[in-house]
Specification:
The chain is α/β, with parallel strands linked by helices. The chain has one domain (4-241): Vaccinia Virus protein VP39 (Rossmann fold). Helix content is 43%, strand content 15%. The protein has a seven-stranded mixed beta sheet, with helices on both faces. The chain has a two-stranded antiparallel ribbon with strand order 1-2. The longest helix has 17 residues, at 4-20. The relative contact order is 0.15.
């Protein structure tokens, strides 16, 4: 008997129950806070390139790309490039698609690591402020006539910056595709004395996303993905364009 659909439904139901388990979610965030003191999210690579993400987010993003088959993935925030390599690797398996990474500063050694990678043919790098009006015009042209566009926001994490990114980039996400807002976990953890940042509780991607969702009905939360991640840097940050 083919039980694949039953398995999928049971897994989804379990994920939703997991998301409703307040004590488990509290414990998971406690693990995140304590493990971050040891830079846990900095420990991983994807095909040889550092990917500054938590493993459940890496796996979930892979699932999303495989399921929705975007033809273009836009990510703000390049860092060391591992996320771009992740996206490009799944697109390579799918047989089509391009990744565009945007960062206000792409360091020479990171650019070299990305551009020398075997998957670089699917990656384009743009050094620019994500909020640049000129860049917005560039993406209007690049997304013209592209049927499936996915966007991931993972650059400056202040409320105002992410709010403006949402206003600029949400328009590019096509129906059925994902908008991922990274590092919403900042809202739920205490100030990180070991890694000072200009964002924190009350001023971060989660607060920007909440404001955005209150006035934009085009997106809905992916309840299953957001519930099952548990150890995630982006709780509530996985959205689908209706």
């Amino acid at each position: 008997m083919d039980d694949r659909e039953t398995f999928r439904q049971e897994a989804a139901a379990s994920a939703l129950r997991l998301g409703e388990d307040a004590e488990l979610q509290r414990l998971a965030r406690d693990v995140i806070v304590h493990s971050d003191r040891h830079h846990w999210s900095y420990q991983w690579t994807w095909l040889g390139v550092p990917i500054i993400q938590m493993p459940p987010d890496i796996v979930a993003t892979q699932e999303i790309i495989w399921k929705t088959k975007p033809q273009l993935i836009i990510e703000t925030g390049v860092a060391r490039g591992g996320s771009l390599i992740l996206y490009a690797s799944i697109l390579e398996l799918l047989g089509e698609g391009t990744v565009i990474g945007v960062d206000v500063e792409i360091r020479a050694h990171n650019r070299a690591s990305i551009e020398s990678h075997p998957l670089s043919k699917r990656i384009e790098l743009i050094e620019s402020d994500a909020l640049s009006p000129t860049l917005h015009e560039v993406f209007k042209e690049k997304t013209k006539n592209v049927e499936r566009v996915m966007v991931i926001l993972d650059s400056n994490h202040t409320h105002e910056h992410v709010k403006r990114e949402l206003e600029l980039f949400a328009d590019f996400v096509t129906p059925g595709q994902y908008l991922i807002v990274a590092d919403t976990v900042v809202e739920y953890i205490p100030e990180q004395e070991h890694r000072p940042r200009p964002w924190g509780v009350g001023n971060n991607p989660a607060t920007a996303l909440k404001e955005f969702m209150s006035s934009d009905s085009r997106f809905e939360l992916d309840a299953v993905t957001n519930s099952k991640l548990l150890l995630t840097s982006s709780p509530g940050g996985y959205l689908v364009r209706r």
